[in-house]
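Lecture notes, unit on protein representations.

Consider one protein chain, 374 amino acids long.
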Amino acid sequence: MSELPEIKLIFDEPKQRVKPPKHFADLDPTERTALALELGIPAFRAKQAGVHFFTHYNDDPESWSDIPKELRSVMAEKFTPKLITLVRSVTADGGRTRKDLWKLHDGVLVESVLMRYSDRTTVCISSQAGCGMNCPFCATGQGGLTRNLTAGEITAQVVAAARACDQGELPGGPTRLSNVVFMGMGEPMANYNAVMRTIRNITAPQPDGLGIGARSVTLSTVGLVSGIEKLISEDIPVTLAISLHTPDDELRDSLVPINSRWKVREVLEAADKYSDKTGRRYSIEYAMIKDINDQAWRSDLLGRLLKNRNAHVNLIPLNPTPGSKWTASRPEDEAEFVRILESYGVPVTVRDTRGREIDGACGQLAAAEVTSEA
């Protein structure tokens, strides 16, 4: 096995000079009404804003014809200030996969990926600018953590994706955004409150939210047990995904440095508790890295760990990043890994690797943009 670098975890968000503008998606419905009254705007206008934003995916109050002209500028500033601006989009898979690069108010860059399949349309969103978890094979982790995103900034990525679907920007004509996965830049559990507000924005019935079912939302974590335990009490049955990447603590301490705080068995026990509470099967995300974590004995250990658990393994052929020594497993090693897991009765799939030709790994497009501006 290759020698792994020493890792330093970053749990605290770096200081930021200017806070993002407050957006009504940062608030719950009651707080949105209170904001309207505080501004001297009739309470029902808050509900109208929800109709435009969450039902029609329109974030420009100047075009809201049912709002008096004299109120539109106020609502544009106080309800739906511009939080994300599209820098560029790149496509793959005949246009069915689209990666969007967004610039935030302070110039920070984040990414989202919109993917149309035959039976669903999914957006993968970012919850942080960068990431402090420092997993050495991850493009985002290589850049470190810049800051947390607000619920408004995260929600804006989802609304933009819903608008693109509704307006037929993907091949196949108009469709409905059906799934949201928190697997973009950042560790969602390290930005817990903003992520939970976003999940409620996604799952609340229109016009208070987007009306996407909780079962169609996937929340990924590298294993922040404290966050999983808090999620159990939220009573929102999203799909929990654990980015495990290896079943043994010795390697995981290096591949996923948070493992120095919460070991593999602790993470799985927390996921079991979540499954017991919600009745939902959880997912084990496993990036297949050549000669690092793809050995048959590790598949055997993983199978023994999971054989009596309500878990599904999602193997991910690694999307290599420029200059990295990490690369995807050999096809024959991947096939053997699958065979061994299946011999234990563990459900396993190999993820469809979308977007390799468009810097598909999280963080690559943002890193390329920064490099081009340097």
